Every structure is written in structure tokens, then in C-alpha cells.
Amino acid sequence: MPAAIGVKIAAPEKQTIVVCGDGAFQMTNNELSTMVEQGCDVKIDLLNNRTLGMVCELQRIAKRHKFAVALPDTPDFGKLADAFGVKSRRISQDADMTEAIAEMLAYDGPYLLECVVSEVENSKVNM
């Protein structure tokens, strides 16, 4: 998210979208304040699988025991966004994706689109 803010400030005419997992978002969600303060029209597509997805996937690929990757008690990201004055929407069905993305892109200002996904979904990368 910090990089997206820098991109948006450097090129305000460009559409700027962050795609991140819930673990990464929890490490940088304080930047919502900066987005609002700076008037950055940054869109956030948050993939919420309640895990540190990349670490979990790497452990799976290495055939290691999953360790320290579960995030079962994630906050209500919509309420968090609201606390910073950022519009948000939460979806959990593929059928809602097209409309939700259109709504996010049409909104003038920072926007958090939380997409609840299965914790077993992965990138399908064979390593």
C-alpha cells in the first residue's frame, strides 16, 4: 500500500489498484489514514483467506507442516475502513465480482473491496 500511495501521488491521473492478502493488509492498514489525508484515489482489492497465504503455500509446496500462518481472528475490515473514512464492500460469491469491481472503480476516492476466498485456494503455481 505505501508503494501505491507513492504511485498515485506521482501519477494522479493513473488508476491505482492494490491487490493484497489479509495478512499483508494487516501489516499496512495504517496507510488508509495516509490515503485519506493525501486524497489518494487508491483502490484496494483485499483477498481474505484468513491465512498468510504466500507463506502457507510455500510451506505446502515444500511439504512442510503449516506453521504460524493461520489468521482466524481477523478484524472486520469494513469497519476498519469506515473508521478511516474509506468506502468498502465485502463479497464472498464469484457472481458478485463484476458488479463489485465496477462499483469500486467508479467510486471517486479510496475504496476497499474485500473478497472472501477459501483458505485452500492457491496460485496454482507448480514449483
Automatic annotation (TrEMBL):
Location of the Thiamine pyrophosphate enzyme TPP-binding domain: 1-115
Family annotation (InterPro entries): THDP-binding, TPP-bd_CS, TPP_enz, TPP_enzyme_TPP-bd
Keywords: Thiamine pyrophosphate
GO terms (BP aspect): isoleucine biosynthetic process; L-valine biosynthetic process
GO MF annotation, one: flavin adenine dinucleotide binding
Short name of one Pfam family: TPP_enzyme_C
Family: Belongs to the TPP enzyme family.
The protein's name in its UniProt record: Thiamine pyrophosphate enzyme, C-terminal TPP binding domain
Lineage of origin: Bacteria, Bacillati, Bacillota, Clostridia, Lachnospirales
